[in-house]
Amino acid sequence: MVCLGNICRSPLAEGILRSKISKMKVTVDSAGTAGYHVGSKPDPRAIDIAKKNNIDISTLRARKFERSDFINFDKIYVMDKNNFNDVIGLAENKNEASKVILITDILDSDSFVPDPYYGDLADFVKVFNLLDKICQKIANKIESS
Ligand code: 4NP
Prior knowledge:
Strand content: 5-15%
Strand order of the largest sheet: 1-2
Radius of gyration: 14 Å
Structural class: mainly alpha
Number of strands: 4
Helix content: 40-55%
Bound molecules: 4-nitrophenyl phosphate
CATH superfamily: Response regulator
């Protein structure tokens, strides 16, 4: 799961997806395309909205997306078009580029997960609900594979 800062959207996506799948099935992780918040906890508003939904993301720490992620992961879900362009820009071959998926494509919608950082709690609720819907579909696919 990849966003810009790895403190709002992608840690929520990581926590939500992890909560929906069997522990042994897959490794779920998240990262940011920028390094501003490396080592930081998720934004307190992200921690709060996750907690209200019985998901603990308070122990996660931000890291920057790195080239090795193309090797370690089969799928790289990005939250918006900027994330998509930034991550695709680091791919060195077609196989790596083919792993990068705009996460809202899972819903067959021409959309993206909006950045709630400069918004309010209602924006975090919207992001949570959108990611919850998408991650349920991803989890269903994983569980039936
Ligand atoms: P995220 O949100 O990409 O969902 O983690 C942001 C977090 C921090 C900043 C921007 C977006 N920032 O500019 O510091």
